[in-house]
Write a structure and sequence with these properties.
Length: 216
């Protein structure tokens, strides 16, 4: 998480509250002190990106992400969110490049593999798309749940390899110490499955943080 100085924490919480309530204009109106403080600028830019995305202002969000990348060049959230915005701005090739550079740093980022598979499928690169989705499901078996309904993957549904991914049963969970399974860590992946009527299965706002997770 991008740090917020103690004296600005209350303001940051107010901004988060307006974003959670889907009032991005009110959030943007409060951002001045965060953006004006060098110690809080990254946190302010993150919230500004989220507000622009909520408003559907992807060029503005991408401009802020460009500055944020200079402050946090290796932050996974920046790569995932830039790719997310580039897809919606019609720049699928740019979205692919964002995820490829993230995976060059961290090849175990399951969400990046999943989103890359979606973008490659939209570009008609079936073999690479299925490879990426296979890696995503291998790293996080829960990604199989998203294969069934994601419209980005409609071009793959007749491919036997894609059908095999859908058919494969989840590996049984092995109980960890204390009786919980080893993936029962109470982590909700920090992304918003919004349930809205848009064409994709992902959130209508990138996640606040986790280190990144946002599906397509």
């Amino acid at each position: 998480m991008f740090p917020v100085p103690k004296h600005l924490e209350r303001l940051a919480d107010q901004i988060d509250g307006w974003l959670d309530l889907r009032c991005p204009d009110k959030a943007l109106a409060l951002l001045g002190p965060l953006l004006g403080d060098p110690a809080a600028r990254a946190a302010g830019l993150e919230r500004k990106v989220r507000a622009h995305v909520r408003l559907g202002e992807y060029p503005q969000a991408l401009a802020d992400l460009g500055e944020l990348r200079q402050l946090a060049p290796d932050d996974a959230w920046v790569d995932l969110t830039e790719a997310w915005c580039r897809k919606r701005a019609g720049d699928l090739r740019g979205a692919v490049r964002c995820l490829e550079q993230l995976l060059a740093r961290d090849h175990k980022e399951a969400v990046a593999h999943f989103n890359l598979g979606c973008y490659l499928a939209l570009l008609g690169e079936r073999d690479r798309a299925i490879d990426a989705l296979s890696l995503a499901c291998g790293l996080d078996d829960g990604n199989r749940d998203f294969l069934r309904d994601d419209a980005d993957l409609d071009g793959l549904r007749t491919d036997p390899r894609f059908r095999a991914l859908l058919r494969e049963e989840r590996a049984p969970r092995k109980p960890a110490a204390g009786g919980l399974s080893d993936d029962d860590d109470l982590d909700d992946d920090d992304w918003d499955d919004d349930g809205d009527d848009d064409d994709d299965d992902g959130p209508d706002e990138p996640p606040r943080r986790r280190g990144g997770a946002s599906r397509n």
